[in-house]
Amino acid sequence: MKTQSIDTSPEAEKILISLIRKASLSKRIIQTLSLSQTTIQLSKRAIARANKELNAEQIKLLFIAYHYGEDLAVQIKKYLDKNQNEKF
Length: 88
Prior knowledge:
By secondary structure, the protein is mainly alpha-helical. The chain is built from four helices and no strands.
């Protein structure tokens, strides 16, 4: 089997894959959700560090623009401007 990671030995990768396969569905889903949440947090933190002048809402909108497209970010911004009582 060809390894999927250049920094992991083939033996270690076989063990990791085996552990993933043996894990219950709920455990795999929890791990996937945790990884997704961590990735989102790290992305927002990087955006904030690179754009210190932005507030929390602007960081979220920039995150949306980067990951889901400028059109969606613009639509959400218009919605928020129209419904200023909405929390984002």
